[in-house]
Amino acid sequence: MDRGSFITESDGDFLSPRRAHRVTTPFLYSGKLGHARKQAALRPQRQELSTYMPSPAISVAMSVYNGERFLASAIESVLSQSFRDFELLIVDDGSVDKSASIIRQYAQADSRVRPIIRENRGLVASLNQMLDEAQAPIVARMDADDICHPDRFARQFDFLTAHPDYGVVGSWSEDIGEDGENLIRSGADHPETHEDLMEAIAVGGQLICHPAAMYRRDVVRGVGGYHAAFRHCEDLDLWLRLSSVTRLGNIPERLLRYRRYSGQVSSRHATEQQIGTAVAQVAWRERAAGRPDPTAGLQSLPPISELDRLFGRQGISTAVREQVAMGLLYSASAMRDEGFDLLMSHVREGGRRDGMWRTVVRLLRFGEPMRALRLAGALAFSRAG
Question: What predicted TM-score, i.e. pTM, was given to this entire model?
């Protein structure tokens, strides 16, 4: 490989967003027509090693923050894809571990890897920056702790090519643990068709696994990209906004190995994620009813108590608090942080009590006897009252 083709970093700057993509591995083709295309693609490379190809077909968007533990395996799964016409954008979002060093090593070995090494700005800022930097019309999301099936990009790119009315396609996934061991899945798989997905939206079901998503860049940018207010559930808010302008679906194949462990975002920020989910669903219903969405320009969501004022209607705060409280009953992390206080407010205000006494028992199992006692007291007092 011609090492002179690389543009190196300096003082934390990222690589040029307009670096041409150098051919390092021939594309995979099949059949007679494919063989002819392969020979045509290879001829310029044989004539002159410095030949550059046009922009890639896919831009892979990966952000990492202190993710050294699983980063190499995630990158390897991308670089080993059967579909090879892509660039891999990796934002190191101010990591203090060895993540940046790992990214640089892969960039030196494969010109498809484009590092963006900078200070911490958060995932939403990183995602929007990669949307701006992407050279391809198609963007494939990928997390730094998951593993792609070797044919993931090929299957999803073929789907979008065959279905121009779809702006987003995800896939089913399989769950793995910290050490890559298979975990037993529970619950339904993601909806396949757009119609199935719209039914899932109506009942608050799961839509598309974010790191398994591939979408058209111009469609996502057309709705404003990722919104800062919905930190930790920015993907759900995006799918809800996109559902009114394009079709979304999932390939019923397990094209991503999704890692579950105690350190992942959904475990560490369960309460904030549940609040954002509930507010995003309220905003979706507002838009569907033809009313303005007051969350569109927010940098952060207001407290639940101020949601009536934000949406200009009574009852929003109570409904959101109830939805969040009922959604946190099984979360150990939420019951150890502000999620417990939210639950107590819900009980004191006379909200639904379904499963609350079982939550008292769970709090004891979580090692929170004082919180179990407080919840039991609130339940007994509210019943007596």
Answer: 0.84
- Give percent of the chain above pLDDT 70: 84
Q: Each residue of 122-131: pLDDT tens digit?
A: 999 999 999 9
Mapped to the 3 state alphabet, what secondary structure does the chain carry?
A: CCHHHCCCCCCCCCCCCCCCEECCCCCCCCHHHHHHHHHHHHHHHHHCCCCEECCCCEEEEEEECCCHHHHHHHHHHHHCCCCCCEEEEEEEECCCCCHHHHHHHHHHHCCCEEEEEECCCCHHHHHHHHHHHCCCCEEEECCCCCEECCCHHHHHHHHHHHCCCEEEEEEEEEEECCCCCECCCCCCCCCCCHHHHHHHHHCCCCCCCHHHCEEEHHHHHHCCCCCHHHCCCHHHHHHHHHCCCCEEEEEEEEEEEEECCCCCHHHHCHHHHHHHHHHHHHHHHHHHCCCCCCCCCCCCCCCHHHHHHHHCCCCHHHHHHHHHHHHCCCCHHHHHCHHHHHHHHHHHCCCCCCCHHHHHHHHHHCCCHHHHHHHHHHHHHHHHC
Question: Taking all residues of the chain, what is their mean pLDDT, rounded to a whole number?
Answer: 87
Neighbouring C-alpha atoms within 13 Å toward the C-beta of 124? 17
Nearest CA to 210 out of 268, 299, 273 is that of 273
How does pLDDT run across 242-264, given as a tens digit for each residue? Answer: 999 999 999 999 999 999 987 66
Given CA atoms 186, 189, 195, 198 in this order, what sign does their dihedral have? Answer: positive
Helices 316-327 and 270-288, packing angle to 10 deg: 140
Q: Which two tokens stand for residue 2?
A: 């011609």
